[in-house]
Amino acid sequence: MSNPGHSMLADLTRTKNARTRRLSSWDQEGRNQDYWLIGPGETVALADIRGPGCITHIWATQFCRRTLGPSVIDPVLGQYIAPVNEIHNALGVTWEEADPHYYRKVLIRITWDNADRPAVLVPLGDFFGVGHSMPGSFSSLPLSVSAKPEESYIHGGSASFNSYFQMPFNERAVIEIINENDVPYGQYFYIDYELYDEPLDKDIAYFHATWRRENPCDGWGPQIQTNSPEANTVNLDGKGNYTVLETQGRGQYVGCLLSVAHFQGSWWGEGDDMIWIDDDPEWPPSIHGTGTEDYFNHAWGMQDKKDLFNGAPIHESIVAGYAVSYRFHLTDPVRFRERIKVTIEHGHNNHLSDDWASTAYWYQTLPSPVLSVPALEHRIPTSPGRRKPTVVAPETLSEEQRRMVDRAAERMDEYLRLREIEIQKKLSRTRKREAANKEFGRLK
Question: According to the model, what pLDDT value does residue 137 have?
Answer without folding.
Answer: 97
